[in-house]
Amino acid sequence: MYKQPIATLIFLLVLFTDSFSKILDTLVIEGLDINKPHVVLNNISLQKGSAFTAIDVQKAVKSLYRLGLFKDIEVHILTETDTSASLMLKITENPICESIEFMGYKKLKQKELEEKITLNKGQVISDALVHENINLLRHAYSEEGFLLADVTCELIETKVPGNVIVKFVIKEGKKIRVKNITFSGNKVVKTKKLKRKFKTKQKRFFGTGEFNKDLYRKHLDSLMFYYYDQGYLDAKIVSDSVWYAENVRDIFIDIKLQEGKRYYAGDFFFTGNTVLEEEALESRIAMKKGKPFNKTKFEMTKMLISNAYREEGYLWIQIEEQNQYRNDTIDVTFNIVEGRPAIVRKVDIKGNDKTREKVIRRELRIYPGQKYKQSRMERSIREIMQLNYFDNVSPDLRPNDDGTIDLVYTVREKENIGQFSAGVMYSQVDKLGGNFNIVIPNFRGAGQQLDASVEYSKYRKSYSLGFLEPWIFDTPTSFSIRGFYSKFENPYYNYQYHSVGIELGSGRRLKWPDDYFRAFVKYRLSFEEDIRPVEGDIGNLTLLKEGILSRLSLLIERNDTDIPNFPNRGSILSLNTYVAGIGGDYNFVKGIVGYDWYFPLFWKVILGMKSKFGLISSIGDRGKIARSDLFAAGGTYYDFQIRGYTEGAFGRWSNHGLSGLTFSGEIRFPILEQQLYLAAFGDLGNVWDDLAEIDIADMYPGVGFGFRLMLPMIGLLGFDFAWGLKDPNDPHFGGDPSGFIPHFLMNRGF
């Protein structure tokens, strides 16, 4: 509202009543410190020398108020004649926020308070804005249980005209606690059970009893949902009362219920269905005849029926239910209007600023001209996420007038998915050294991968350069090439290792047994030198100190997990076979079978189970193998992971390692989705010289916890803290445990 002097009102009333207009001689603007006069003049129609009426003045004042810059506007008549008048606009400006201060807060941090308000430095401050932010702070305290918190605001003028310091003065008061909750009217469900189901809790030894008004209303609804799921569809809350005790800190809650009749599920019927048979629809019913009529399962049934039609392309299906009551039994008839199937007119990709569109489009499982299928749309999301270039993929279905749809996939690209690291290291063995590693997984935005690594010290030299093209010749066939050189000498333990060579690989997506399968073939040609102080043969294999390795490997993998790094559900089956003996000096067969499985338990907690089995055998009566190709277990970086023990504690270094077996389990949950995860885990495993020697009693257990952190330009960092529960030097359980051992990992999950 704006103010006007009596003389102004009378003048305007006369003008309006007599429908007279006058010429504006002059217009004086007074009271501006922050804004310039042209801000006022450009937003009103009153112009010097032009005719105006009372309505024009009213419109001008309202227009200025709408700018939000002014707190008060008065219109004064300076001079007037029968045909003209001079006016003055006396304006009080809204101040500008120079800074924001909080006073009296203890329970909430200043950063939390700053995040709650909408006021910013440099912003024009109105009374409404101040009132809004006072309420936001009160609500913030209410959410923390301080229902009696009081917030006031002071505007303190500064040396700069028009600027003020906004000072919120907070009186937090005492935290409100729920002293007692009582229920009445409940005859079937006991009060003790209602208190367990009611999420607002009264103060107990192990409970805080905090009270939040908004959550309390939602918890009342949740209480009714519990009744509805038990079949009490007529249940209702007759009344609920909340009042303070005399100490104005404790509150009491009384809830009066009316349970009503319990209903049971009867028969289910379908009408109007021509696309799906009645048997197919009945399989979607989540309720059982004769059981209490569960409202949640009933809504789930409608969703499952709708999804069954969406899978067939019928996006605009309408389902109306009719309930028929037979005493306490409810028969349901679903009246279905199927409509017509949706045809995909076009598929668009949005949000890919770095990645080429064809890299995403070749992962799609739904195409223009096809009938829409829900599973194909969801599978496309899964395949795009498996690229590991994106944080999220959001689908959008846009209907057209002709009955077709446009499908839009909006991707959100990860920031800096390339990984780079460089450092200096020192150890007693290697002395001073350095390392450099770079991995570019989406090279040139074409889905290619380029990686290089260098490690150099007095006794260790290692170089590697690799390239991967996932779609060679625009077909789902990958090609990879890698050159490597590695040399390591240990004068303290009198052994040395030397390897130089090249590896070529190719992979292909398979359609059988299903399209989650992939096959990869690699060929390695290298010179190997492995001289260790421990010599001798293992089984029917001779350990060669040096030679030419010509090895072919075949990997068949089925992966239906939802996301790459931290899967929530799905499994990975891998069958890996190595055959050495196609020329060269080595001849052996090595096979590894692995199976990983992930399942959501509750909330965001994921259960992961892993198993791995390996076996090495000779080709012919007497095989030849390098020690580095034998299995090793212990730690995190060798063939078989057993945390809580030193790296490679079991196997190749002690003339063992022709067979191996490990089991692992993890309970994982996210602190920040796809960025920071915590987990508790357990490992069990060992390696042996022969398949017949494998014995569960001879396996080494380890338990611990760890975390994984995804960092831009560095990749996935991991720290595991584990305890070995068995003495590595004791072949039977019962010796001294290995003790606590930390493990550091790069670019690996749990």
The name of the CATH topology of the largest domain is Porin
Measure the end-to-end span: 64 Å
Q: Name the shape in a single word.
A: extended
Count every helix, treating DSSP H or I runs of 4 or more residues as helices. Answer: 11
Rg value? 37 Å
As for the number of domains, it is 6
The CATH superfamily title of the largest domain:
membrane protein fhac: a member of the omp85/tpsb transporter family
> What's the rounded overall pLDDT mean?
88
Layout of secondary structure:
Layout: H1 6-18, E1 22-30, H2 37-41, E2 51-52, H3 54-66, E3 70-80, E4 84-93, E5 96-103, H4 110-116, H5 127-143, E6 150-157, E7 163-171, E8 177-184, H6 191-197, H7 213-229, E9 236-244, E10 250-258, E11 264-271, H8 278-282, H9 295-311, E12 318-326, E13 329-337, E14 344-350, H10 357-361, H11 374-386, E15 390-399, E16 405-413, E17 419-427, E18 431-443, E19 448-457, E20 460-469, E21 477-490, E22 495-509, E23 517-531, E24 541-543, E25 546-559, E26 570-580, E27 588-602, E28 605-618, E29 623-625, E30 632-633, E31 650-651, E32 659-672, E33 676-688, E34 700-711, E35 715-724, E36 739-746
Parallel strand pairs: 1-4, 5-7, 8-10, 11-13, 14-16, 24-29
Antiparallel strand pairs: 1-2, 3-4, 6-7, 9-10, 12-13, 15-16, 17-18, 18-19, 19-20, 20-21, 21-22, 22-23, 23-25, 25-26, 26-27, 27-28, 28-32, 30-31, 32-33, 33-34, 34-35, 35-36
